[in-house]
Amino acid sequence: MNRVLYEVRALERDERYRMPKTRCPNCDTDIKIEKPREGTMITCPGCGVELEVITADPLEVDFTDDWQNEWEE
Hints:
By secondary structure, this protein is an alpha+beta fold. The protein has a single domain, classed as Rubrerythrin, domain 2 (Single Sheet). The protein is 27% helix and 29% strand. The protein contains two helices and five strands, in the order H-E-E-E-E-E-H. The strands form two sheets. A three-stranded antiparallel β-sheet has the order 3-4-5. Strand 1 and strand 2 form a beta hairpin. It is globular and about 50 Å long. The N and C termini lie far apart (59 Å).
């Protein structure tokens, strides 16, 4: 049992097995996405704003065009 736990912790520390993460541009909350794809729409768990995945590697998100249009009005 201890060997399995040790191996899992070693994998968690390994960069290749970490879930990509970034921060919300609105509230600075950590956002983690298991398999990010460019163009995917997500909702920030902290403030609820709708965001779009701009790049998957490195993970970058930004406000959607709809959100920016609402802000300008």
